[in-house]
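Re: weekly structure request thread

Next one in the queue (737 aa):
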Amino acid sequence: MKKVWVPVGLTLVVLLLLAQLGMLQKFGINKASIKTEEAQTTKSSAHGDDAGMSYATAGAISYRFKTEGDYFYVYEGDKWKQIFIKGVNIGSGKPGLFPGELNISYEDYYRWFEMISAMHANSIRVYTAMMPDFYQALYDFNTSGTDNPLYIFHGVWLNEDDIATLNDVYAENSKILNQFKQDAEDMVDIIHGHATLAAKNGYASGAYTADVHTWLAGWILGMEFDPNFIKNVNLLHPSQDKYDGKYIYSQGATPFEAFLTEIGDAVAVRESTQYKWQAPIAFSNWVTTDPLTHPEEPYIDEDSVTLNTEAIKSRTNFLPNMFASYHVYPYYPDSMNLQKDYVAYIDDEGKKNPYEAYLKDLKMAHTMPILIAEFGVSTARAMAHEGLMNYNQGKMEETDAGNAVVDMFRSIYKAKCAGGIVFAWQDEWFKRTWNNELFNDHERRPYWSDVQTCEQMFGLLCFDPGAEHVGAVINGAPDEWKDSDVVVTNDAGTLSMKYDEAYVYFMVKPAEGFDFEKDTILIPLDTIANQGNTFYQGTDVKFTEAADFLISINGMENSRIMCDAYYDVFYFLYGYQYKMVPNVDAYKTKNSGIFNHMNMCIGYDMVVPSTKQEIPFASYETGKLAYGISDPESEEFYSLADFYQKDGVIEIRIPWELLNFMDPSNSRIMNDFYTEQSITKTVFSQFRVGLGIQGKTGNEISMDSTFSYTPWGTKPTSHERLKKSYYILQDALPEIG
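Done, posted below.
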């Protein structure tokens, strides 16, 4: 493990001894910032507020939460109780809603709080101001007599459009700074139930009367700051590297750290002056801008600047102290799985655990408690990053995801961090992911469930499509297809189709004599005019219409959906445009007969700086179909299941994105790439579909059958379901901390 400039592992006793010896200055520690337990408790007494809470008072200031040593403490009865934070992040999105629409109901929030409490979590976190119903629901839940009320960590966001446009907190008369400060002060008023915010598009508004301050465990101010934003502020304002606030001040800070200090002090001033109350304060941070060095990090921006909150300190009149807040995922940035000391680290269970190694490294860089305010894995069908521990960004089955989160929770505890807040409580359909964000219409993402977009599916609570049930449960049972029209009937058997907001479903009843392990079912699909293949290269199979996609079912291990090479968006983007994969001229030719395996990028080529090791462009076959049962009520439930067969019935579900839909809610698919020289959308009309059994039903597959669907516009249907990961955490959390 690396050592950094801050005094590492020093206890409060050692600090006090150093103070007596006059040696604090040598270690860069301000004597005024040290607060002893004696100074607090001798001035503390218990009081009760209107919510029945007890809290500590020192002079005119009261507080209920504080940080000390490694952990948080809550004042209960007449003493401080150490707590390990076990929480979840709550977003502001639901199916059909962008986050700025802020239209989640009181009833939803109250029900969610019940579920979160029942999971044995003790905390929630939100990033920015929510609508009044959120705070009212939290107040009502916490005062309902529950045995497990929820603490809250609250954030204050910055305007991302201003950051992108100005890239400087002091530009345009300090527009970003002033707005950030105003939003922070407004947030203090909201927490204390004394605010009225005027209506503003994309922002919370209304009358805030629910006072939830007695459950405020801490402020987490800011966001995952882009390193180039930090560098630009530091470069443009080298002399503005100090802020001497009433409660929070900087020491040895950069200009950006001084800017954050001003915001932290504004929160402390507002809360102390207006409400005679204080709560612990932190600033949002992540691995990219941590105070450590990562010699194996391939991308310079991921280790180019430091945001060291150790340079932001509190005075003795700020009673609850500060803490550090970090977002730490097991697969990002790449140094997490390349750094030699992390990769070599073996945990007490005998397994390689770079995640725990990083946490211990980070712990040595701080004198204040560390809260891991975001961590988790995605249960999306697709993947965007692969972790060394198989804790990936996506392609995590729900049970595996739950076990991974529990394992990370245990690492957080073993590293003596103050706790962890899982990302996230609910799935969010509006999210985008770097490796497929060009494949969908960003203005309509909330209106359909793109299971290929990893960022949409970090939740413990998912929104399955359909008002009450999904279009079809993949389990080989034909009962739910009774009212569905048969699309194809021929010598190969029958084919029926369905759809919902996430998938297109197929049910095949093969003709008598079909052998699932030996025979191959072919389902050609024509989705776009004037392109596609009329034959399948390498076989004697032909189609009566030009097929853009070909579903091949050939046993449990060798089934997939393939794409006409000309309509292969992966090759167009990474081969033709970016030139990251080899050029193949035949792919740019219509009716080549080539059906490509459908791949997804999970990493660009890179070079490890310390070793000069070259790591090539990485991708995997996302079109390969996984065998299993998708019924959550089944003991054999496999959340990543794509197809299943039973008693002569085969059910298949194909994500809309794997059929090149950019927006199924509005019937939009990808246009001709090479004509447009870009990924653009066009109107989808209907599927032309066929069914054949290779080598058994003749060489030519008829595609004279059609299937149409009705787009649902901006009104998607969905229903809530707690993932298997929720129940795994529910069992494990009581034993952690």
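Residues 484-715 form one domain. The first helix runs from residue 12 to 21.
Next request, please.
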